[in-house]
Amino acid sequence: MPTADITTEFRTFPKTWGAEYVAAGEVRFRLWAPGQKEVQLRLNGEDTPMTASRDGWFEILATGVEPGAEYQFVLDDGLAIADPASRAQNGDVHGPSLVIDPTDYPWKQTAWAGRPWEEAVIYELHIGTFTADGTFRSAIERLPYLAKLGITAVEVMPIAQFGGNRGWGYDGVLLYAPHSAYGPPEDFKAFVDAAHEHGLMVLLDVVYNHFGPDGNYLPACAPEFFHPDTPTPWGAAIAYDKPAVRSFFIENALYWLEEFNLDGLRFDAVDQIRDDSEKHFLIEVAEKIRAENPGRHIHLTTEDNRNITSLHERGEDGAVPHHTGEWNDDFHNVIHVIATRETDAYYKDFAKDPHTHLARVLAEGFAHQGEVAASTGKKRGAKSTHQPPTTFVDFIQNHDQVGNRALGERLLTLAGEDRVKALMTVLLLSPHIPLLFMGEEFGEDRPFLFFTDFHGDLAKIVREGRRKEFAGHAGFRDGEGDTSDIPDPNAKKTFDACKLDWEKLETETGRNWTDFVRHLLALRQEQIVPLLGEARGHAGKVLSVEGGTIAVSWKLGRATLSMAANLSDTATSRPKLEGSIIHQTNDTGDGNLPPWSVLVTIAEGKN
Asked: Which reaction does it catalyse (predicted)?
């Protein structure tokens, strides 16, 4: 693997916001608070006025400050708040922040520089439910298992400090502070260090489209941080045209990558990042990340329901100037329709000829490339055929697609083993980048529900809003079901029900599943990954779609990878594929593809 030249102090850089050591024992504290006339620093229980400078900044240099010292900012009205750029909290979002020395952690894997993107097999996990203890330290214990399975990248759902102890992480309010219920910053660094020891990349999900409703004091400090007349689904849009705001987020992205030695970021719901600047925030942050991290494999992915391609364009020889990949909801949505026959909500867009949609997704990336979507009546997407297949991150499950169901059912519960194994085979043996959601590799059937830890009126709003959301969905309309059966997101038992059942690994079912997944991932690593470095645009081609059977091929350098999949309940004629068979679900010997079976071949080209 490649190595990088890393100094003994590792990688740190000065920040615009927050508490920053500038010399031994000397810390500069800075806060952008144009909405305040005066701000005081409360350090170890003592208040000291901060100096106001231009453009709404307040700062102060304090001496004799030890790592772990508690501090808060005190506003005009006497309210003491956490530092919006807090690196750690002593307790929850309303408590004091802690001064952190980022050079304190004794990194072991200092030569790690990542892995190429084409090697990525991503495993999405939620720290709080991944293990019984729900901490960074306990998660370390499972890393050898993931590496042995064939996983090469762990993607951690958001860990920025949010209100309460339990939550998905998408309501973070202190975006620089690892959630204290999971452990202190050094524990997350230990998790990353251990992952690298086992050859695993670590990607982090970051949320730059909104702040959570509990503990966000930025509107009091700086009303200009938001655009009140520009709404998003979660409140006013963030004002990315303001330099102080822009620096907050750009430095946050660099902070996670450099101080925690992460291998990449996943940007949540970027369609809700509103920015009319000459250079869009998402382009600028990608360019800054690339410039600040030469010699490292840094992978940036986006979630975006618009099906756009502009963020992921490739340079010469397949180089990535901005973002590496796009979470491909089209793949999941059409797979879900084929497996479950559900056609509610956004699944409506894939109800007609789902197998045709799937073939297009596999060959070209998106199913919708500028066509009118049935669910909205509006055009959606852009042409994606020119992008290499490794641009698209595919999944048959993820936290959203499971957890946003009323009862949090996994696909195995909805569709059964035969169907899910066939779909898993398509996922893991296509040239797209595969993502697994924690537990699906051992056949987990425990739900992953939406859970929070709010209290009072906010808890009531979330509980009632959740039930109202599903009132018109299948199973809860026309007298079919009672929405009061939908688990209360704030109840601890809802959270506990989502913890993985690791004992299932020791059962026959668990072993059967992990053997199945391990075999496919070994096959991918040996036969397919070596071809992906030469993958370019216009690689895919739909060979045929006959009823429930699809056939697709991809030109990957000199080789051709082909796949035929019968995703139906009846046997069909086997399409003719070029090359040698590298995988076949089972061979009936009669020239047919059995129900829910997959055939994969590779044809080597001539030099």
From this structure: hydrolysis of (1->4)-alpha-D-glucosidic linkage in 4-alpha-D-[(1->4)-alpha-D-glucanosyl]n trehalose to yield trehalose and (1->4)-alpha-D-glucan
